[in-house]
Amino acid sequence: GFIAKVKRENGREVRGFELRVGGGLSTMPRQADVIYDFVPVENGEYIRVTEAMIKVFDKEGGLPNFLRKNMAKARVKFLIKKIGIEEFRRQVEEELAQPWAKEPLDMEALTQLAPEGPTVGEPPANGRQPAPEFDRWLKTNVRRQRQEDHVAITVTVPMGNLSPEQFRGLAEIMRRFSGGSARTQQNQNLVLRWVREDALPALHAELTAIGLGAPEAGLIADVVACPGTDSCKMGITSSQGEGYALRDAIMEMGDDDPLVQEITVKVSGCPNGCAMHHLAAIGLQGSSFKAGQTQIPCYDIFLGGGNYIGGGKFGTRVARIPVKRTPPAIKKIISVYMEERQDGESFLDYIDRVGPKYFEPILTEFREVGPISEEIDVYMDWGKDELFEVIRGEGECAL
Ligand code: SF4
């Protein structure tokens, strides 16, 4: 991990990064260790240090076959847990003393970026009327750029799903409104930069025409979900189905409370945590519960995770709830928070104050399940019309 920093040396400003290594989520959430608190950008020192870290990892920290014997454990975090950050740093420095680390780097070539800027010419006037959600979208999806008259807009992409038609439509929109480029976001949305402010009504109308004009970017309803059983063989549950169900339930609540809006919700279909549910205020991890000969699809609910400046905090597991009961369970968590919070208290501060486990008894009512003859729906996952079964194979990722 790289955290940009600036420091003053001999009266001049030096740019660099704090370098961290060995963090990760999945079955062993772990905070990254700081290996160097400042590595300068100039001369590409940060690139050499990074390369040295990769070399140490490739050599398995001097422990033959420690990482390669089990693919699931081939992660830097396991190596650092084993040998410690001091030993890892020592080995990195040994690498940095090798001849390869003395070779000059062509920084100009390495740091070249494709030019970005606005689309040339007048903003397109397409004659469409702004869609009804235009005002809300302006509030939630548009950010002013430093450059006058230009804004960056977020395209909300629920669960990160785009159809081929939407991709083609987006390409056309990018050419006309954002200089031909877009950026992806970690939370599955897209950002179009360099949009002319006076083109916003036309742009929103175009996005709405291809089904991408939804507001709520980065807010509670903008649930993040991994592919889950829809396409990932490691999946236990349909995290995509869960994501849409939670999005609908949250939208139904229709609450515009700003502190509720900043709650993050992320859904992973198994403990590997590709949706980063450990870092969500409300995180869900696919799991199951055995009921006699049958299995019930469930989610383990984690509360209190989040990103902070300088670090992250992992959520704490509080309950295992059947999939079909999770929308009311999440609504309950939100309503308890709204009733009990102190003035201006954020959800994360509230969870810190009461402790995540406070919710264990509150969620008990959602755990009860009747026999299959009475509640067959609870024994099926979202979008499925057959009884749930855990079937796992090889995943999309390296695990
Ligand atoms: S391996 Fe990752 S993508 Fe697949 S279900 Fe698990 S968390 Fe989701």
TrEMBL record:
Every Nitrite/Sulfite reductase ferredoxin-like domain range: 144-209
Entries under InterPro entries matching the protein: NIR_SIR_4Fe-4S (IPR051329), NiRdtase/SiRdtase_haem-b_fer (IPR005117), Nit/Sulf_reduc_fer-like_dom_sf (IPR036136), NO2/SO3_Rdtase_4Fe4S_dom (IPR006067), NO2/SO3_Rdtase_4Fe4S_sf (IPR045854), NO2/SO3_Rdtase_FeS/sirohaem_BS (IPR006066)
One Pfam family here: NIR_SIR_ferr
Keyword Cytoplasm set for record: no
Keyword terms: 4Fe-4S, Heme, Iron, Iron-sulfur, Metal-binding, Oxidoreductase
MF (Gene Ontology): 4 iron, 4 sulfur cluster binding; heme binding; metal ion binding; oxidoreductase activity
Span of domain Nitrite/sulphite reductase 4Fe-4S: 12-98, 222-359
PANTHER family found in the cross-reference section: BLR3264 PROTEIN, FERREDOXIN--NITRITE REDUCTASE, CHLOROPLASTIC
The protein's name in its UniProt record: Nitrite/sulphite reductase 4Fe-4S domain-containing protein
Source organism of the structure: marine sediment metagenome
Lineage, uppermost ranks: unclassified sequences, metagenomes, ecological metagenomes
